[in-house]
Amino acid sequence: MTAPKADPVYIRYMETFSASTLHTRDCTACQHGQPCAVGAPIHTVFAKAQDAYQARQSAKRRT
Known about the structure:
Blueprint: H1 8-26, H2 28-31, H3 39-62
Helix pairs in contact: 1-3
């Protein structure tokens, strides 16, 4: 039996989630809902990865 192939969209989603979470943990501004200059792009990339993953999951449910 072979292991299932890794899902690159899911992996990207989890990597960006981790980056966003780690940054927020250490950034007071981001903890209060006001992304800093460093955090804003990190959070944006995470949001886009999350949207891509969720869109693909929705498409899978429709088929």
